[in-house]
Design a protein that fits this description.
Mean pLDDT: 79
Distance between the termini: 30 Å
Strand order of the largest sheet: 1-2-3-4-5-6-7-8
Number of strands: 8
């Protein structure tokens, strides 16, 4: 909910600004996975939003697993020249695991359908340093840092829930982004 409120506040500022906007793909162990949008404030600060609705299933929406995620990343420039920069960052990412399923049991020749739904989530915190290189209108970013994950235990798929059998894990995290500069 906090992220949604922040987006509502930031949207008009970002939309009507004259600063640089970028869009692309971001893959990170702690900062999110999916389509990203980045806004440069021109004051050594940068804001990035990442989101992606990932799901699998055989009988959607009755039998499905959905894993939507949303992430927010803040960057601060340590060193910047023309087409290169080194920055510090902090990011937060949330994955939801929504599982719909059902069973059909026959009692006295009458099929009875029982629906099941589970909602779990994972919170990722990612802090570290990054390097960005700009080639014409395309940016390439590489992040490395401390990744902390707290989970309610979604377990599957393993590439989302790193903690497997515990409620949290601390590890080294990494991320990569490829973005196109809009203006």
């Amino acid at each position: 909910m906090r992220i949604i409120i922040l987006l509502i506040i930031l949207f008009p500022v970002i939309l009507f600004s004259r600063n640089e906007h970028q869009t692309g793909i971001y893959l990170s162990s702690g900062g999110g996975l999916g389509i990203c949008y980045k806004y440069d404030t021109k004051e050594d600060f940068h804001i990035q939003l990442t989101a992606f609705p990932y799901y699998t299933g055989t009988d959607i929406p009755d039998k499905m697993k959905a894993y939507p995620n949303i992430g927010l990343k803040l960057e601060y420039d340590l060193y910047s020249i023309r087409n290169k920069r080194i920055y510090l960052f902090g990011s937060y990412n949330k994955w939801w695991a929504i599982r719909n399923n059902y069973t059909i049991e026959t009692i006295n020749d009458v099929p009875i359908r029982t629906n099941f739904r589970s909602n779990n989530h994972i919170d990722n915190y990612f802090f570290g340093t990054g390097y960005e290189y700009i080639f014409q209108r395309v940016t390439f970013s590489f992040d490395i840092g401390y990744h902390y994950q707290s989970t309610t235990g979604i377990g599957d798929p393993n590439w989302i829930d790193l903690s497997r059998n515990s409620n949290s894990i601390s590890t080294l995290g990494a991320g990569i982004a490829i973005r196109y500069i809009l203006r």
